[in-house]
Amino acid sequence: MRTRRKGIAAPYLIWMVVFTVLPLLLVIYFAFTDKQGHPTMANLYSLGSYTNVFVLSLVLAVVATVLCLVIAYPISFMLSRLRAGRQGIALMLVMLPMWMNFLLRTYAWMSLLERNGLINRFLGLFGIGPFEMINTAGAVVLGMVYNYLPYMILPLYTAMLKIDSSIIEAAEDLGAGTWHKLWKILLPLSKPGIQTGITMVFVPAVSTFIISKMLGGGNFWLLGDLIESQFLGNAYNYNLGSAISLVLMVVVLLIMGFTGGFGQEDIEGVI
Amino acid sequence: MDQNIIVRLQDIVVDFDEEAVLDGLSLEIHDEEFVTLLGPSGCGKTTTLRVIGGFLLPKQGNVFFDGVDITRLPPYKRKVNTVFQKYALFPHLNVFENVAFGLRLKKLGEREVTERVEEMLALVGLRGFGLRDTATLSGGQQQRVAIARALVNRPKVLLLDEPLGALDLKLRKEMQIELKRIQQSLEITFIYVTHDQEEALTMSDTVVVMNHGRIQQIGSPQDIYNEPNNAFVADFIGESNILDGMMPKDFVVEFAGHAFACVDGGFAQNELVQVVVRPEDIQVVPAAAGQITGVVRTTVFKGVHYEMLVEQAGNEWIIQSTVASAPGELIGMRMEPDMIHIMHRSEEALAYMEEEEGADADEA
Ligand SMILES: Nc1ncnc2c1ncn2[C@@H]1O[C@H](COP(=O)(O)OP(=O)(O)OP(=O)(O)O)[C@@H](O)[C@H]1O
Ligand SMILES: [Mg+2]
Fold this sequence. Notes:
The complex is a heterodimer.
Chain A: H1 2-31, H2 42-45, H3 51-81, H4 84-95, H5 102-113, H6 118-125, H7 137-161, H8 165-173, H9 178-206, H10 210-216, H11 223-231, H12 238-259
Chain B: E1 5-16, E2 19-30, E3 34-38, H1 45-53, E4 60-65, E5 68-69, E6 80-83, H2 95-105, H3 110-123, H4 139-151, E7 157-161, H5 169-186, E8 189-194, H6 197-203, E9 206-211, E10 214-219, H7 221-226, H8 231-236, E11 241-249, E12 252-255, E13 258-261, E14 271-277, E15 283-285, E16 292-301, E17 306-312, E18 315-321, E19 330-334, E20 341-344, H9 347-363
Parallel strand pairs in B: 3-8, 3-9, 6-7, 7-8
Antiparallel strand pairs in B: 1-2, 1-4, 4-5, 9-10, 11-12, 11-14, 12-13, 14-20, 15-19, 16-17, 16-19, 17-18
Helix pairs in contact in B: 2-3, 2-4, 3-4
The structure holds adenosine-5'-triphosphate (ATP) and magnesium ion.
């Protein structure tokens, strides 16, 4: 069995080397060299001045991840309890926004939240507002939650599908009210899904750049924006960009290791 | 047996997709009674248990526990526990913690929890299994954990939904005896669901025969077997010969072209009835000595007895006898008066007979 598995894994290994290991090595190389290719620690030392960007990115990503979890958990549970025939349709409705282009989705939110946007105009009919919604931290978090919510729902839903209703009923039968059912049965049994979901939302959220740009109006300069400007923007310093990427990767790895979120859960079936 | 009524169901109606799954079901269950709900698949046995357990709110009707209306009480507040059809053990907890679940919710001290869990594990014969992962247990052992877990809260009533359905025959027989022992030693009520009539007859104080969401008969195993209320019960509980007949007067019934003496009376003159005779209650005698005669079609050895199909004046009889008759042989048949059971021809029974004929025709 082992050798056969190895054989099957060969193309995957090549893929990994070309598209994962090599780029990673390049990032490390650039992070520790200067423009002339001489080894240096300057890139890393200069990161201290970007601490506030790191902190803001982490905070917004954590908030967005927690919100996603809180919103997705009951939705996933209800999805998993629907009759088999209706689950497919309901799941499709939840996933529908994912089929729309990422930029379009975010543009849509821009026009909704703008000072003269749909929401403010609607509220204006009742003499309320206008509210300053766009270009706030709330708008950035909203954009993250909206875009990444499906990535939380899918693994949670998959994990919850495996929880037989009779197990929940057994808990209730033995005296568990709503709170105990959630705490002693649902949460432990859906833990793999929670971990995977957190990873799948947190990682893109902490490194996003378009959402913060479009909905934050440049007031919320996040790590993603910082990195982008080093490679594509006017700052143009890919040594610094690599150093930031490297530190971000380490931070993400640490956090994932802490939450145990290296997705043991098999979600390939759903995606 | 204590005659207090512990659970009472009153005119329970449950609908699924507009279809009545329980159709005005009323039932009284006594303290310390072993009651079995018996009936074919889909007749509403599980649904009845779910109504008692609180997992299903009936569309109509009331559930009483110890005289108190608990129809709308959620499951976790009921003094009833359930052994689920597929065990439903908590996969993230070991055997000990599965059993301890109910006690932990009550916030009992660690010592009392340990004491009571060990007591339950001993009761079901799983002493020393506490630290095992439930996934490593055999089906029979998992079943025992499920029973211990349900009993640890000391319920007055235990609901069991086909608890032995997944076990092999030998283990099933062992567990039947064990369950009966547990029920008697704890002196609590068991409401037991099965579609195995033999299991129902051997274990129960009272058998409730159900079909299509209605109760067909309630009685002791002997009553159910010997005095079936209608053709459905007679047919479902063991094999029977069911024939159309007529009562010309009390203690005489005409069927199969002969007037038999019987022990039943109180029917209208010439009332049309249905007659049930158990296969083992027909004596095989020489043709000349028979009340009626028939020709043996097939003979099959069944271990304790031979089972013969006999054709007689257009009727097909099943006869069980310890003496075999050869196919083609003309035999005489005799029936003692108290072996002939007479039933009114209820609408329900007629509907059932038609259904059966339809099914037979489909098979042919
Ligand atoms: N949740 C449900 N939704 C729709 N129909 C249901 C539901 N639960 C049960 N039914 C229907 O109700 C009827 C009775 O079901 P029930 O589970 O009570 O039968 P049962 O007597 O326990 O059968 P079995 O011996 O097969 O377990 C069946 O026709 C079943 O299809
Ligand atoms: Mg059932």
